[in-house]
Amino acid sequence: MGFGGIIGQDRAASLLRQALRADRLAHAYLFVGPGGVGKRRVALALAKAANCLCPLPDGDACGSCAACRKVAAGVHPDVLLLTPEEGTLRIEQVRTLREEVTRRPYEGKRRFALLDPAEALTEQAQNALLKTLEEPAGATTFILLAQRTGTLLPTVLSRCQRLTFGPVPEALLARHLAAAGVPSDRARALAALARGSVGEALALAGGAALESRDALLARLFQALERGPAACVEVAEEIARDREGLGEALDLLLPWCRDLLVTAVLGHPGLAVNRDRADALAAAAGRFTVEALAGAVAAVAAARAALETNANPRLTCEALLFRLRDLLIPASGGDRDAARREGELRRPGA
């Protein structure tokens, strides 16, 4: 895939193509943006275009020559990709890379070194990389790909030309999915859930995302209605692994947000889950705006906690009890009894 196959990142692609045509590529770039929006695809498209044996009239890669095929297959000797080992990009990896880029390109006109994700670089690895960024090899371009820059040293940031990648517009995602054979109604629903990520949209299209969402929401709200014991059981089921709980919260958060927006506006026109507009309209009236705002905050807090070392099961249990307090009406006595029942049913209680 060359620049022509990139969707939703026209500005970044245009700037890179202009720099390539003028032979003025920076020695180091920082691509910053959400996951799945095309940062690595753009980096590889640049590497293809710079090393293509039969470039197109507009300077883009042909996509079919030996160089393009090697880049696409991940075997081009002049396109180096550093990914984490045991969760981090370590100083040993950077030292090996530094030694490699002192050599002339093996086959291509220019060498590219991609570090993905750059925020996985340890502080020691960043310091080791810094000297190379200060004194770049003549035929090498470094591309650091990151979702956030908070862990990157200011000295590293200052030596990279920054390009920002935004979420892909929903309409473009829907057209992309439809072109791939997804029915138009389903493509629009999946594009809304994908939050601007091409990768997420394609992953959702390859599974039963809408059906999973509906089953999850039904199970959660039934548990809230049934009581504390049911909340504990569902929490245990959902939180068997951290990734599964994360996916569940990523479905629950926009649903709660949609309920809040529908309650405030009186209609679900701005909802993410627009394919369930009737259900949102019917459900939103059951809750107060304050309760729904609290629910959104609670789910967001649980999702943030999961990014740390929080225990998945305890996080899910606490969330469901909080949602039950917010969304299920009960008298004070009934609520106190429900809490006691839940505590008695907890393992080890």
Brief overview:
This protein has 349 residues and is of the alpha/beta class. Helices cover 56% and strands 7% of the residues. Strand 3 (111-115), helix 5 (123-134) and strand 4 (140-146) form a beta-alpha-beta unit.
Characterise the protein shown here.
It is a single chain. The protein is 56% helix and 7% strand. Helix 4 (91-101) links the parallel strand 2 (79-82) and strand 3. The model is unreliable at 330-349 (pLDDT under 50). The relative contact order is 0.09. The protein has helices spanning 10-21, 39-51, 66-73, 91-101, 123-134, 154-157, 170-179, 184-193, 198-205, 209-226, 228-238, 242-265, 277-284, 289-306, 312-327, 332-345, and strands at 28-32, 79-82, 111-115, 140-146, 161-164. It has a five-stranded parallel sheet with strand order 2-3-4-1-5, with helices on both faces.
Shape: elongated
**Cα-atom Rg, whole angstroms?**
24 Å
The number of helical segments is 16
Largest sheet: 5 strands, parallel
Give the strand content. 5-15%
Counted beta strands: 5
The overall average pLDDT, rounded, is: 88
Helix-strand makeup class: alpha/beta
User: In percent, how helical is the residue content?
Assistant: 55-70%
Strand arrangement in the largest pleated sheet: 2-3-4-1-5
Distance N terminus to C terminus?
57 Å
Unreliable residue stretches: 330-349
Written as H for each helix and E for each strand, in order along the chain, the element string is HEHHEHEHEHEHHHHHHHHHH
Features:
single chain, 349 residues, alpha/beta, 5-stranded parallel beta sheet, 16 helices, 56% helix, elongated, disordered C terminus
